[in-house]
Design brief:
about 425 residues; alpha+beta; Cytochrome p450; five-stranded mixed beta sheet; three-stranded mixed beta sheet; 16 helices; about 50% helix
Length: about 425
């Protein structure tokens, strides 16, 4: 058994802004030096698909790494730190299970499909405003989509979107491991906590935007029955906004960037909703934004390597399915490829993302409607990148296109 500290491992400088521009090449080079493991300034990085799948499934041996991230961010005792430790991903395992059991019926595939009409309506209205310009930053445009959908799901007025969007963008960078960013996170979490407190108070006072009960009503009922505390309800609502915003916005932006280079795939998305599903799944495989941190609960052995207790491990699921040992021709974007080793964009194990079916439905609906309204998109400027640690993605995607008629109704995915 060889201690992990004694291994000769490649070093991945994930904190370097240039790393985010092409992490795939860095991971490929790292795998040549060691088949499944690398070092970083913050801990160890698992680089191989099979190792990520194995270790990320060891819920009994690994725990969520909020405490480790707070240490790296110098954030202990901060308002943002308290939110992280109190969120559904930061609480103790027994309470985490109780909350997931409570929330699971609200996030089934059937529940997600019930929101598809709202998703189509939101993206269509946004396109009514933006498409006539013929040119815009796609990342900026699409950022309004998920936050407006979430407002619709909980009965909040879309008028709050401009106020929330900046804070959500900031909180999406929560795990960037840059300590100097903490003041921005503190300000953003204050904005979100105040908004949620006002929203809940208004609902309790009888303010409804629609006649039918919504997700907020269900959470308030859970609080009234003792299933949720006030703090847990607030944290869940903030987490819903942050997780829903970042995943959908970043994945849609990444997919659009790839489809601009593949106009035949984009054109087919206009006509075929079922094909859009394939494109979204391939997009999540090809480059998704997530890197998942974990801490070892105990000393554990894997493939002859001893990993000490409390070691910080990073699982870049964004890189896992570009590993040629697991995926044939991994650098080809092929929506019709046979399904073998599936992507892990939404995690694995007991912390797998509860909102994954909503995210999938939202990205599918958004892609289909966008393809019907923005014809022949072309890149017309420079792109940037978010930091690799945490939630990676593009920063800016300036495009030019031919606006299509708004009268064309999007097809229905069904479900």
């Amino acid at each position: 058994m060889q201690p992990i500290t004694d291994l000769s491992l490649p070093q991945l400088a994930i904190e370097d802004p240039k790393f985010a521009e092409d992490p795939f090449a860095r991971f490929t080079a790292a795998r040549r030096q060691h088949p499944w493991l690398a070092r970083s300034s913050f801990g160890y990085i698992i680089t191989e698909y099979a190792a990520i799948k194995d270790l990320l499934g060891m819920d009994d041996k690994l725990r969520v790494a909020q405490e480790g991230v707070l240490e790296l961010m110098n954030a202990r005792g901060s308002k943002w730190g308290k939110f992280q430790l109190g969120s559904i991903n930061g609480i103790a395992a027994d309470r985490h299970k109780s909350l997931r059991d409570l929330l699971a019926p609200m996030f089934t595939p059937r529940a997600a499909n019930q929101h598809r009409g709202l998703m189509r309506q939101v993206v269509s209205r946004l396109l009514d405003e933006w498409a006539p310009r013929g040119r815009f930053d796609f990342e900026e445009f699409v950022s309004y989509f998920p936050v407006t959908v979430i407002c619709g799901m909980i009965g909040a007025s879309p008028e709050v979107v401009p106020k929330l969007r900046s804070s959500l963008e900031t909180l999406g960078l929560s795990f960037n491991l840059i300590p100097d960013f903490l003041p921005n996170l503190e300000q953003a979490i204050e904005v979100m906590e105040e908004f949620i407190a006002e929203l809940v108070a208004a609902r309790r006072a009888g303010h409804h935007l629609a006649e039918q009960p919504d997700l907020l009503d269900a959470l308030i009922a859970a609080n009234d029955s003792g299933g949720l505390t006030i703090v847990e309800m607030s944290n869940l609502l903030i987490f819903l906004f942050v997780a829903g915003y970042d995943t959908s916005k970043n994945v849609l932006t990444m997919i659009m960037y790839e489809l601009i280079k593949r106009p035949e795939i984009y054109a087919r998305c206009k006509e075929d909703p079922a094909y859009c599903r394939n494109v979204v799944e391939e997009g999540l495989r090809y480059q998704n934004p997530a890197t998942i941190p974990r801490l070892a609960n105990e000393a554990l052995s894997y493939r002859g390597v001893l990993i000490p207790k409390d070691t910080m491990l990073f699982f870049p699921v964004s890189m896992a399915t570009r590993d040629p040992s697991a995926i044939p021709s991994p650098d080809e974007f092929d929506p019709e490829r046979p399904q073998g080793n599936r992507h892990m964009a939404f995690g694995r194990g007991i912390h797998m993302c509860l909102g994954q079916f909503i995210a999938r439905a939202q990205i599918e609906e958004g892609l289909h409607v966008i393809a019907r309204r923005l014809a022949n998109p072309k890149l017309v400027g420079e792109i940037g990148h978010r930091p690799f640690p945490g939630v990676w993605g593009l920063r800016g995607l300036p495009i030019e296109f031919t606006p299509a008629p708004a009268s064309e109704s999007p097809l229905d995915f069904g479900g």
